[in-house]
């Protein structure tokens, strides 16, 4: 005859996944693991708050990504509109100035068309990179900041409880 299992490690071997357990069952598991009732309750509160904070951060980042994508579309539209405006100016017949000034104005307008076209192409190619490549580029730019992010913190600072 099999003896009933008890204790935290045996509970981990049960068929029910930890995510499907009730908070009371989880607290019981923590108590069996050597946590007192106060420490187990604090852990549960901290664990719950951390999850809520992480979810809020994720939602803010998703919103930020959505806003950035819309802003990128608007920048490209603006560059296209400006390019078209300069093209209209370049194609305009200028009878109010002599032909040398008109040629200079046309050359300037065509140069502006080219500048705005190249800016739009560059933005489009940069923004079209894969997410992984974009993250690598940002991390490479910020590696000095990231390296020093945890300097000066003690092990005590890093603990949850």
UniProtKB/TrEMBL annotation:
<feature type="coiled-coil region">
    <location>
        <begin position="51"/>
        <end position="78"/>
    </location>
</feature>
<protein>
    <submittedName>
        <fullName>CxC2 domain-containing protein</fullName>
    </submittedName>
</protein>
<feature type="region of interest" description="Disordered">
    <location>
        <begin position="1"/>
        <end position="21"/>
    </location>
</feature>
<keyword id="KW-0175">Coiled coil</keyword>
């Amino acid at each position: 005859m099999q003896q009933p299992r008890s204790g935290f490690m045996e509970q981990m071997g049960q068929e029910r996944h930890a995510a499907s357990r009730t908070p009371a069952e989880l607290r019981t598991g923590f108590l069996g693991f050597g946590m007192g009732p106060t420490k187990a309750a604090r852990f549960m509160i901290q664990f719950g708050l951390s999850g809520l904070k992480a979810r809020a951060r994720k939602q803010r980042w998703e919103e930020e990504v959505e806003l950035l994508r819309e802003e990128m579309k608007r920048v490209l539209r603006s560059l296209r509109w400006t390019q078209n405006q300069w093209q209209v100016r370049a194609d305009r017949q200028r009878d109010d100035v002599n032909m040398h000034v008109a040629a200079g104005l046309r050359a300037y307008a065509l140069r502006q068309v080219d500048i705005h076209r190249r800016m739009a192409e560059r933005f489009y190619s940069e923004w079209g990179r894969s997410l992984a490549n974009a993250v690598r580029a940002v991390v490479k730019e910020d590696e000095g900041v990231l390296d020093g992010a945890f300097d000066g913190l003690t092990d005590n600072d890093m603990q949850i409880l």
